[in-house]
Amino acid sequence: MFACLATVLTVWGLWLGMFVAPTDVQQGEGYRIIYVHVPVSWMSMVIYLAMAFWALLGLTFNTRLSGMLTCALAPTGAIFAFLSLWTGALWGKPMWGTWWVWDARLTSELILFFLYLGFIALTSAIDDARRADKAGAILALVGALNVPVIYFSVKWWNTLHQGASVSLTKGSSMQQTMLDAMLIMAVAFWMYAIAMTLYRVRSIILIRERHSQWVADLPEVKALSLEARA
Amino acid sequence: MIWSSFSDFWSMGGYGLYVWGSFGVTALLMGAEAFWTRRGRRNALSHVLAELRASDANGKDWR
Q1: Whole-angstrom Cα distance, residue A52 to residue A42?
Q2: CA proximity to A140, closest of A65, A55, A228
Q3: What pLDDT shows up at residue A169?
Q4: Beta bridge partners of A24
Q5: In whole angstroms, what separates CA A134 from the centre of its chain?
Q6: Residue of A nearest to B36 (CA)
Q7: Residues of chain A with pLDDT under 70
């Protein structure tokens, strides 16, 4: 269901963004990169916060599912963080004249990308699932400090990356169609992230619960074992 | 419609490389992720199956 929503919303958002929304006065057609850049950047931060939330829940209440969800979120987050840097570089080259600067926003987003990679490496390096979850949870929580740094970096430091065009308190300084298209894309990517995470967490649950009877009784598993016997 | 022709759309007012470079890589990575995730599910299922069969072959029921 989330995958369908993601597809429909992406088509709608791209239509609005690529065919309906007008050309930007200052940036020409190059501004259209924001239709992917802003949603992936937002989602890279939202996913990290979600990971930190599940990590906290797992550490305090020792719930089993939270560790699995934290692991399932990380790959999508890493991809979004990378895409944020990639699309940012492709926007920066024609607009700023450079692919990369050690600007506060860019650097903290790069740190976020490394935090995702570190999380994935750490949890997959530890064989014991419980210990891997615990170590990963601590990394996720400590790293969460970086997220507000990314968000407020354009305010705290006077750097090259421009300030937010959309703000919760002051509304938006963008043209309405552009804003609509960007928000639709953001929701679409959100749905995509949920679809990927849920799909992935089902696989993780299967592996971790492989000795329990309900897994053996699963219609999918039974069908496969019949197939193998025939 | 704001574009007069397909080549107009493709060139993106001279920003074609940057715009399509962004959209292309995004689509590529998201597609690849969907593929990996699907394959991960298949791997998990076959893993479970292999272990079930091993325990059946041993004739032990320690589930």
Answers
A1: 16
A2: A55
A3: 60
A4: A28
A5: 21
A6: A200
A7: 25, 158-159, 163-164, 166-173, 228-230
Q: What is the pLDDT of residues A68-122, one digit of tens each?
A: 999 999 999 999 999 999 998 888 888 888 888 888 888 889 999 999 999 999 9
**pLDDT recorded at residue B20:** 86
pLDDT at B49 (0 to 100): 84
Residue B58 has pLDDT above 90, yes or no: no
Give the minimum alpha-carbon distance from A47 to chain B in angstroms, rounded to a whole number: 15
Q: Does B39 touch chain A (CB under 8 A)?
A: no
For chain B, give the longest Cα–Cα distance: 72
Provide the pLDDT for residue A226: 74
Q: What is the dihedral of CA A21, A22, A28, A33, to 10 degrees?
A: 0
Residue with tokens 């394959």: B39
Lookup result for tokens 């919760």: A168
CA A163/CA B7 separation, integer angstroms: 33
pLDDT at A33: 85
Closest partner residue to A221 (CB to CB) among B25, B43, B45 is: B45
Closest residue by Cα to residue B3 from A29, A7, A164: A29
Half-sphere exposure of A196 (CA within 13 A, CB side): 29
How far is Cα A201 from Cα B15, in angstroms, rounded to an integer? 39
Please name the member of B15, B41, B53 whose beta carbon is closest to the beta carbon of A202: B41
